[in-house]
Specification:
One of its GO terms (molecular function) is acyl-CoA dehydrogenase activity. Keywords: Flavoprotein, Oxidoreductase. This is Acyl-CoA dehydrogenase YdbM. Pfam families: Acyl-CoA_dh_2, Acyl-CoA_dh_M, Acyl-CoA_dh_N. It is globular and about 80 Å long. The protein has three domains: 118 residues, Acyl-CoA dehydrogenase/oxidase, N-terminal domain (Butyryl-Coa Dehydrogenase, subunit A, domain 1, Orthogonal Bundle); 106 residues, Butyryl-CoA Dehydrogenase, subunit A, domain 2, CATH 2.40.110; 142 residues, Butyryl-CoA Dehydrogenase, subunit A, domain 3. The chain is built from eleven helices and eight strands. The strands form two sheets. It has a four-stranded mixed sheet. It is α+β, with helices and mostly antiparallel strands. The longest helix is centred in the C-terminal third of the chain and has 29 residues.
């Protein structure tokens, strides 16, 4: 990351702290990937450092960091270990989004915020096998029924990232009597809640994105914290940019590996290292150009979002950032592998892991086709 994006001493202090943790996590990232294990130790160290409390609102004793700040930190963390960064990013983004404003009961949100200050972790559980991404607008099969002054929730959620260590789940469920989707705050110790270890993907293997199973989970009436009138994409939520920030960090790691390899590797057919080969120089130059464009775009849009007056003018920029950065990351890793050659496919080489992990970005919201369709719609509505 270029230091030009660091604007305050506080940002630099946290970048230094996160950088040390990221470098430490990098040493074990391959192990967790190979064994598809969740890096609980990494998450605990982030908790202990105070990182998980950074997006708690100032009104509740947190630092209330900006979106720009979070992206800086998340990119650096992902350079060391992408799955760890993506996992904790969901917690940070949920708390950051809610701190901007929500319709929750004040006492409920105050309690959650103070728990988060002490290290409690939260994520949304909205995806289901039958509905696909919740951003597509499908009705959840998970359902909630009002009974005896409370709620009974049943259903199954997929892609519940960081599920092994989450303290709270924000679960979407269909409420028949309201003909609406409700969001319920459910504690990990609720009777009837279980985690089924189903996560076995080629990419982001260390995110612990298992299934959440809810069987007659009884909740207090106040645990219905949100009612959704439409798609979640109807709301401008810049905090989802934690997703492209992670893939940008992974791409930077791939770039750095390729540059160092080009400096060190000298086949006996050459008089010097391959960094002197024009084709290699072209790949590296193209990589840095693409990273530069993606990084400036992402941080500029983050600055716009952090200004409430300018935020209201954003239309398709947030989706465009995710589309641009994610596809750039895929291209960068591909070029890095071309520099390194067949060695990049060795299971002991980090590039093959980076290659698998950045591909996951295509399936994080918003999807590429939805972003392009939205931009076209904006154009035709002008």
């Amino acid at each position: 990351m270029c230091s030009i994006f660091v604007k305050t001493e506080r940002q630099q202090e946290w970048l230094d702290k996160i950088g040390k943790l990221a470098d430490e996590f990098e040493k074990t990232a391959a192990y967790y990937d190979e064994h598809a294990q969740f890096p609980a130790e990494h998450i605990q160290k982030l908790r202990d450092s105070g990182y998980t409390a950074l997006t708690v609102g100032k009104d509740y004793g947190g630092e209330g960091i900006s979106l720009y700040d979070m992206l800086l930190f998340q990119e650096r963390l992902a350079k060391g270990d992408g799955p760890t960064a993506l996992s904790i990013g969901w917690h940070l983004s949920v708390m950051g989004e809610l701190a901007e404003g929500n319709s929750w009961d004040r006492d409920v949100f105050s309690s959650l915020s103070h728990e988060a200050l002490k290290g409690a972790l939260i994520n949304r559980a909205a995806s289901e096998a039958q509905t696909g991404s919740p951003t597509r607008g499908g009705r959840p099969g998970t359902h909630a029924v009002k009974k005896n002054g409370g709620w009974i929730v049943n259903g199954r959620k997929t892609f519940t990232t960081m599920s092994p260590v989450l303290d709270y789940f924000l679960v979407t469920a269909w409420i028949e009597e309201k003909q609406m989707i409700g969001v319920f705050l459910i504690h990990k110790d609720a009777e009837g809640l279980a985690i089924e270890e189903t996560w076995d993907m080629a990419a982001m293997r260390g995110t612990g994105s298992h299934d959440l199973v809810l069987t007659d989970v009884r909740l207090d009436e106040s645990m219905l914290v949100e009612l959704l009138a439409g798609k979640r994409t109807d709301k401008i939520n810049g905090w989802l940019l934690h997703i492209p920030a992670v893939y940008l960090g992974i791409a930077q790691a791939a770039r750095d590996y390729a540059v160092q390899f080009a400096k060190d590797y000298q086949p006996n057919s050459l008089k010097g290292p391959i960094k002197e080969v024009p084709a290699v120089q072209r790949h590296i130059g193209e990589i840095d150009l693409e990273l530069m464009k993606a990084r400036h775009f992402m941080y500029h849009v983050a600055e716009l979002y952090d200004d409430p007056e300018r935020r209201a003018l954003l239309t398709g920029e947030l989706g465009a950032v995710k589309h641009t950065v994610t596809n750039t990351a895929i291209d960068v890793v591909d070029k890095a592998m071309r520099v390194v050659g067949a060695k990049s496919l060795a299971r002991t080489n980090p590039l093959q892991r980076f290659y698998r992990d950045v591909r996951a970005g295509l399936h994080n919201p918003p999807m590429d086709d939805a972003t392009i369709a939205k931009l076209a719609g904006i154009a035709f509505s002008e």
